[in-house]
Amino acid sequence: MKTDCLATHTYSPVQIKSLRAVSFSYDVPYTTLYDRIHGALPRRDTRPTTCKLTAIEEVLLECMFNLDPQGSPPRASIVRETANIILSI
């Protein structure tokens, strides 16, 4: 993965003009290098599509479930206030 990053920084019109030459010299697949230069993120930096909620959303949901035994419905103002508290941490 480090070679991907290094190869994308090496590719510039001044240093090496061919993207294929860079991919060959760093032993990185051409398609991977092409995708990185055009903005694709590595898999390790993206969230899995099977993950339904982010960690912050899960904490917010847990707080709302804790209100239920108290007999208090989660009003929009309570949800907003709790979300702001979680985001400030």
Determine the oligomeric state from the structure. Answer: single chain
Percentage of β-strand residues: under 5%
Global mean pLDDT:
79
Number of helices: 5
Q: Using DSSP, what is the number of strands?
A: 0
Weakly predicted, low-confidence segments: none
Shape: rod-shaped
Let me know the largest β-sheet: none
Distance between the termini: 32 Å
Q: What is the H/E string? A: HHHHH
How would you classify the helix and strand content by structural class? Answer: mainly alpha
Give the % helix: 55-70%
Q: What is the C-alpha radius of gyration, as a whole number of Å?
A: 23 Å
Counted up, domains total 2
Describe the model.
The model has no long low-confidence stretch (mean pLDDT about 80). With about 90 residues, this protein is mainly alpha-helical. It has helices at about 1-10, 20-25, 30-35, 55-65, 75-89. The longest helix is centred in the last third of the chain and has 13 residues, at about 55-65. It is rod-shaped and about 65 Å long. It has 5 helices and no strands. It has 2 domains: about 1-45, no CATH class; about 55-89, no CATH class.
